[in-house]
Automatic annotation (TrEMBL):
Its EC number is 2.7.1.69. This is PTS system maltose-specific EIICB component. GO terms for molecular function: kinase activity; protein-N(PI)-phosphohistidine-sugar phosphotransferase activity; protein-phosphocysteine-sugar phosphotransferase activity. The chain crosses the membrane at residues 21-40, 67-88, 100-123, 143-161, 182-205, 211-230, 242-263, 283-306, 318-335, 341-364, 393-415. Residues 578-683 form the PTS EIIA type-1 domain. The active site is at C479. The gene is glvC.
Length: 708
């Protein structure tokens, strides 16, 4: 058990490390494309005399290019500042500043040691810093060439010091040294022996890196295959950063990294007819993006073809945007994590095929910077180099399209043979969707608890992770549709899109008060959420399974009218003074400013939910499949049931006009709340033919308010 816990802890820390490294990496796509565009715009072979040196056009793009080299020229400093943002447990901005100062001290200490005793450490410190010397200039400091690896290591040390010493209590008369100053002081002291250690160790590490580089450069196709396979197969764990960062942005196979080297020599490659593979063999390690451009469209097409005929149109609306994003930009998470979520074997096959595609293209002579999507292909490769390398690129497209077909047939065979529940092959009562990394991680957690196929438990896990984890939760309550959470640190709460991708209708943030709009299933989600916080989710799972009550089939094509559920003035949902309802997060509908004090059933159906304790909300499932929520008043959950009386029970079959909940308007107003009654059709997206009556006075159980 302890070994398992330690293993999980190590994996969590490695994933956290990978996530922290991603903070600066997100800048590389923009700056890389900008450099490439600048170089293309200065190419006289493409643009003629307008791009000659000395023209206004040339001068403009020269300035742009120099600015675009920023992140590549200052990469170690970038990592030293950005990585701590992902590691700091508090005050990440201050941690970034502290890390920068500590990293600078580290380099100054190394410079001092090498100035005094460079020959003792086997370093010729008198030579100018540059490629092959083992020395580099960092912020005008001549120091050991450790690239981003050294910066990342020092950034991790700085983050650890920050997390352990930031809140250290010191005497009042030394108060000026509290917080960041104390962290930097500790870091200053730690960096002296650290710098001395690196002077001893790093020259040997550099030699080992050179040997590793030599091995990879001489391993040819096998090396390219192993690199691409490792990069893809480690992505689910977030450890792929350890593979591609040293290659693409570090010194693993060429000085400065593949991307910077390729861009620096782009004009040389563009004016030579020699084989790309011969001119830049290291570029074979930047072909991992080819599976994004050519492979995943085949996999997506296979999922579409394997979908049930009646679901293909909906599946297409899911797959087309995700596929276009993967092909153009290289962002593959929705498709790849859907493989992982539904059938890990599909992802393993994807990794094998992606590696084989890269190795095949390299075998036929392709090299370059193809780590992203189609935009990278055009801007950094095809446009500037097509004149002399048209044959190579045509071959690339032909081989790529062949692999599109291979992906299609292999995925189609596996999906049908193993009956994988890819989008469009799910049961009729299950939602078809693509999955995110957060949902995949939640599923892995639920698998340990025997709840991998429980959608409400998965939602609870994803919501908990997106809210910053158990340590960030101070208080949890819920109303009829919302999970209300008070968090310790609002900055740790993920964006609304992270919640909606996991099945929430929306997110409302008001300082430390967070509302996750869950819908009518919020009581069950809340139960799992609480259980996750307490660690007794298995007990909740047993109770939920015992309480399960499958619904009877409904006639989804049944047309029907909903009559007023109370007397008063009918208003449109958009006029309700509550963002959750007015923005239709819970679905479209209407509201009534009541003149009576009884809510009745607007049509025949079944009571699916009653807000126990407060009785301010009730859910119904109508005979045509429409699911409605009737919510009495705004924020009336806080009344704790005072002024409300329930006249039905969950599971009851009701007829139009049957009394459901009585309420006291004066009690609601005395408590400081509005008594507006909202009716939301929570699955209104399934009823595009739904029509609402015009605003005006309505009479209970007589005036039609909605028709299907």
């Amino acid at each position: 058990m302890n070994m398992s816990i330690k293993k999980d802890r190590v994996m969590q820390e490695l994933q956290r490390f990978g996530g922290a490294m991603y903070t600066p990496v997100i800048l590389f796509a923009f700056f890389g494309l900008t450099v490439a565009i600048s170089i293309v715009c200065k190419n006289t072979m493409l643009l003629g005399s307008i791009a000659d040196k000395g023209t206004v056009w040339y001068d403009f793009w020269f300035v742009v290019e120099q600015g675009a080299w920023t992140v590549f020229a200052q990469m170690p400093i970038l990592f030293a500042i950005a990585v701590p943002i992902g590691f700091a447990k508090k005050e990440p901005a201050r941690c970034a500043m502290e890390s920068f100062v500590i990293y600078m001290c580290f380099n100054y200490f190394i410079s001092a040691f090498l100035t005094l005793h460079g020959s003792f450490f086997g370093v010729d410190y008198s030579q100018a810093a540059g490629a092959g010397t083992g020395l580099a200039m960092i912020a005008n400091i001549k120091t050991l060439d450790m690239g981003m690896l050294g910066a990342i290591f020092i950034a991790c040390c700085s983050s650890w010091i920050h997390n352990h010493f930031y809140d250290t209590e010191i005497p009042d008369w030394l108060g000026i040294f509290k917080g960041p100053a104390f962290v930097v002081a500790v870091g200053f002291a730690v960096m002296i022996p650290m710098a001395l250690l690196f002077c001893f160790v790093w020259p040997a590490v550099q030699h080992a890196i050179e040997q590793f580089q030599f091995f990879l450069k001489t391993s040819g196709i096998i090396g390219v295959w192993c690199y691409t396979f490792s990069e893809r197969i480690l992505l689910p764990a977030g450890l792929h950063h350890f593979i591609y960062l040293p290659f693409i942005f570090g010194p693993a196979v060429c000085d400065g990294g593949i991307q910077a080297y390729w861009l620096q020599h782009l004009n040389d490659f563009a004016t030579s007819a020699h084989s790309l593979k011969e001119m830049f063999p290291e570029g074979g390690f930047a072909l991992h993006g080819m599976s994004k451009v050519f492979g995943l469209p085949g996999a997506a097409l296979a999922m579409y073809v394997c979908a049930k005929p009646e679901k293909r149109k909906k599946v297409a609306t899911l797959l087309i945007p995700a596929t276009i994003t993967a092909v153009l930009c290289g962002i593959t998470e929705p498709l790849e994590f859907t493989f992982l979520f539904v059938a890990p074997l599909l992802y393993a096959v994807h990794a094998v095929l992606a590696a084989t595609l890269s190795a095949t293209l390299y075998f036929f002579g392709l090299s370059g910077n193809f780590g992203g999507g189609l935009i990278d292909c055009f801007v950094q490769n095809w446009i500037p180099l097509f004149k002399y390398h048209a044959g190579t690129y045509i071959m690339q497209i032909i081989v790529g399209l062949c692999f599109t077909g291979i992906y299609f047939f292999v995925f189609r065979y596996l999906i049908l043979k193993n009956d994988y529940k890819t989008p469009g092959r799910t049961d009729d009562d299950e939602e078809d969707k693509l999955f995110s990394k957060a949902e995949y991680k939640a599923k892995k957690e639920m698998e340990k608890k025997g709840l991998a196929n429980n959608p409400e438990a998965l939602k609870a896990q994803v919501f908990l992770d997106n809210l910053g984890g158990p340590s960030n939760i101070k208080e949890v309550t819920n109303c009829a549709t919302r999970l209300r959470v008070t968090v310790a640190d609002p900055d740790k709460v993920a964006s609304a899109s992270k919640f909606t991708k996991a099945g929430a209708f929306g997110l409302v943030k008001n300082g430390h008060a967070i509302q996750v709009i869950v819908g009518l299933s919020v009581p069950n989600v809340r139960s799992y959420f609480d259980a996750l916080l307490k660690g007794d989710i298995a007990d909740v799972a047993v109770e939920a399974k015992a309480a399960a009550n499958p619904s009877e089939p409904v006639k989804t094509d049944l047309s029907m009218k909903l009559k007023a559920f109370a007397s008063g003035k009918l208003i449109d949902m958009t006029e309700v003074p509550d963002d959750v309802f007015s923005q239709k997060m819970m679905g479209d509908g209407v509201a009534i400013e009541p003149t009576t004090e009884m809510v009745v059933a607007p049509a025949d159906g079944e009571v699916t939910m009653i807000m126990e304790g407060s009785y301010h909300a009730i859910g119904l499932r109508l005979d045509n499949g429409a699911e409605i929520l009737i919510h009495i008043g705004l924020d009336t959950v806080k009344m704790g049931g005072k002024g409300f009386r329930c006249l039905t029970k969950q599971g009851a079959k009701v007829k139009a006009g049957d009394e459901l909940i009585g309420f006291n308007r004066e009690a609601i107003k005395a408590a400081g709340y509005k008594d507006t009654i909202i009716l939301a059709v929570t699955n209104s997206a399934d009823y595009p033919q739904m029509k609402k009556a015009a605003d005006g006075d309505v009479k209970v159980n007589e005036t039609p308010i909605i028709s299907f």
